[in-house]
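Protocol step 4 of 5: obtain the predicted structure for the target chain.
Materials: sequence only (see below). No template structures provided, no constraints applied. The aim of this step is simply to have a reference model before the mutagenesis design in step 5. Sequence pasted as it appears in the construct record:
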Amino acid sequence: MFTHKIPVNEQPTGQLIPLVPAAPADGHPHAPAACSCQHPAPAPAATRPTVQLTPGSLALLVGGGTVAVLVIGAVLVSMLLAVAITAGSLAIVALVVRSVLTNPGRKH
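Step 4 output (C-alpha coordinates):
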Protein backbone atom coordinates (compact mmCIF):
# COMPACT_ATOMS: atom_id res chain seq x y z
CA MET A 1 0.00 0.00 0.00
CA PHE A 2 2.80 2.42 0.89
CA THR A 3 5.26 1.26 -1.77
CA HIS A 4 6.07 3.49 -4.68
CA LYS A 5 4.03 2.87 -7.79
CA ILE A 6 6.21 3.59 -10.80
CA PRO A 7 4.59 3.14 -14.18
CA VAL A 8 6.16 0.66 -16.56
CA ASN A 9 8.04 2.63 -19.19
CA GLU A 10 9.13 1.50 -22.59
CA GLN A 11 12.86 0.94 -22.83
CA PRO A 12 14.81 2.08 -25.89
CA THR A 13 14.83 -1.56 -27.02
CA GLY A 14 11.04 -1.56 -27.24
CA GLN A 15 10.70 -4.25 -24.56
CA LEU A 16 8.38 -3.65 -21.65
CA ILE A 17 9.94 -4.50 -18.30
CA PRO A 18 7.32 -4.95 -15.56
CA LEU A 19 8.02 -3.43 -12.16
CA VAL A 20 6.51 -6.27 -10.12
CA PRO A 21 8.10 -9.71 -10.50
CA ALA A 22 5.88 -12.48 -11.74
CA ALA A 23 4.18 -14.65 -9.11
CA PRO A 24 5.54 -18.20 -8.63
CA ALA A 25 3.79 -21.15 -10.21
CA ASP A 26 1.85 -21.99 -7.03
CA GLY A 27 0.29 -18.49 -7.04
CA HIS A 28 1.53 -17.45 -3.58
CA PRO A 29 4.04 -14.62 -3.45
CA HIS A 30 6.97 -15.48 -1.20
CA ALA A 31 9.14 -13.16 0.85
CA PRO A 32 12.65 -12.70 -0.52
CA ALA A 33 15.30 -14.82 1.16
CA ALA A 34 17.56 -13.09 3.67
CA CYS A 35 21.12 -12.56 2.49
CA SER A 36 23.97 -14.39 4.15
CA CYS A 37 26.57 -11.64 3.76
CA GLN A 38 28.08 -9.77 6.68
CA HIS A 39 26.83 -6.19 7.08
CA PRO A 40 28.52 -3.68 9.39
CA ALA A 41 26.53 -2.66 12.43
CA PRO A 42 24.64 0.59 11.94
CA ALA A 43 26.33 3.61 13.48
CA PRO A 44 24.57 5.10 16.50
CA ALA A 45 22.71 8.30 15.81
CA ALA A 46 24.70 11.40 16.70
CA THR A 47 23.13 13.20 19.62
CA ARG A 48 23.20 16.96 19.63
CA PRO A 49 23.69 18.68 22.95
CA THR A 50 20.54 20.31 24.18
CA VAL A 51 20.49 23.95 25.23
CA GLN A 52 19.70 24.30 28.89
CA LEU A 53 18.47 27.66 30.08
CA THR A 54 19.33 28.55 33.64
CA PRO A 55 17.35 31.29 35.39
CA GLY A 56 20.30 33.67 34.95
CA SER A 57 20.67 33.04 31.24
CA LEU A 58 16.90 33.30 30.77
CA ALA A 59 16.88 36.68 32.53
CA LEU A 60 19.80 37.81 30.38
CA LEU A 61 17.98 36.69 27.25
CA VAL A 62 14.79 38.54 28.23
CA GLY A 63 16.76 41.65 29.18
CA GLY A 64 18.71 41.63 25.92
CA GLY A 65 15.50 41.24 23.91
CA THR A 66 13.87 44.11 25.80
CA VAL A 67 16.86 46.38 25.19
CA ALA A 68 16.89 45.47 21.49
CA VAL A 69 13.17 46.25 21.13
CA LEU A 70 13.56 49.58 22.95
CA VAL A 71 16.58 50.64 20.87
CA ILE A 72 14.93 49.70 17.57
CA GLY A 73 11.72 51.45 18.65
CA ALA A 74 13.62 54.62 19.59
CA VAL A 75 15.42 54.65 16.23
CA LEU A 76 12.18 54.20 14.30
CA VAL A 77 10.37 56.89 16.29
CA SER A 78 13.24 59.35 15.81
CA MET A 79 13.21 58.67 12.04
CA LEU A 80 9.46 59.26 11.94
CA LEU A 81 9.89 62.49 13.91
CA ALA A 82 12.62 63.66 11.51
CA VAL A 83 10.33 63.04 8.53
CA ALA A 84 7.46 64.90 10.23
CA ILE A 85 9.65 67.92 11.07
CA THR A 86 11.01 68.02 7.52
CA ALA A 87 7.49 67.86 6.06
CA GLY A 88 6.34 70.68 8.34
CA SER A 89 9.32 72.82 7.41
CA LEU A 90 8.70 72.29 3.70
CA ALA A 91 5.04 73.21 4.12
CA ILE A 92 5.98 76.49 5.81
CA VAL A 93 8.55 77.28 3.11
CA ALA A 94 5.93 76.54 0.41
CA LEU A 95 3.48 78.97 2.05
CA VAL A 96 6.10 81.71 2.27
CA VAL A 97 7.18 81.24 -1.36
CA ARG A 98 3.55 81.25 -2.54
CA SER A 99 2.88 84.41 -0.54
CA VAL A 100 5.87 86.18 -2.05
CA LEU A 101 5.01 85.13 -5.61
CA THR A 102 1.29 86.03 -5.48
CA ASN A 103 1.80 89.54 -4.10
CA PRO A 104 4.93 90.94 -5.81
CA GLY A 105 3.72 94.58 -5.80
CA ARG A 106 3.00 94.76 -2.11
CA LYS A 107 5.68 96.68 -0.17
CA HIS A 108 6.01 96.99 3.58
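Step 4 remarks: The mean pLDDT is 80. The radius of gyration is 40 Å.
Proceed to step 5.
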